[in-house]
Structure formats: structure tokens, C-alpha cells
Amino acid sequence: MEQASASEQSLFSHLALAACRDGHGNSHLFNELMRTVYFAWFLQQDGYGSEPVGRFKTAELAVEAALELAHVSNEWVLAEDSVPAFETLLALHDAQLGTAPLHKVIEAERRLRQFLAGTANSPVPEADQAGMA
Length: 133
Hints:
Organism: Paraburkholderia hospita
Shape: globular
Number of helices: 5
Protein name: Fis family transcriptional regulator
Radius of gyration: 14 Å
Strand content: under 5%
Number of domains: 1
């Protein structure tokens, strides 16, 4: 992947995390966080990473909780205890963008778009169904 493009994508994801962590999030930034988490999941499924599935599920649940909070109180903030999971997954994604060949990145993006266009709740299996994923 072109270095400038990877750096731009990484920067945007890290800025989204910082804003959401500090209570300055919005629906667009939370969507960007989940997009990055799912993108990292798809690349990991192709052999680029070995984070436990539970870390991905922690990120999903944290965003769901934040969206519920935003609906009730209009506060857009991630729970502090979920931030380390996002930091780890963003670091994973940074490494993936630096090592995965372009065709794998394009395939992961295609899978992400396919998931987003569908009706499934999550591309990440429950931890007890994931085996060693």
C-alpha cells in the first residue's frame, strides 16, 4: 500500500479514537473506529495479525454502549476501560497496512463494503465460536 495513503488512514483512525475517548466523538467518528476494527479483522483473517477475537468483540461492545449513551444523553464518549482494546487494534491495523500486500488490503476493503451493505450484525464471531481466530 502506498505509504502516504496508509499514513493518512492511520492518522484518521487515531484521531477518531482520541476524539471519542475524550468525549468529542460523533456518529461519523464512531463509524470510522468500527470500520478500522472490522478492516483489521478481515486482514487478520488473511494472516496479518493474531489478536484474540475477544479484543475485537470488546471494541464492538464499547461502541454499542457509546451509541446507547449518545442516544440517551447526547454524550459521544468511549468508556475508558475500552480504550486499550482500541489502541491495540489500531496498532495492529497500522502494522497490517505496512506489511499486507495491496491485493490483500483491497480484498479486505471489498469484504468490509460487502459486510456494510448486508444485514449481519457483525463480521466478528462470538469468542466461544471463534476457536483460535
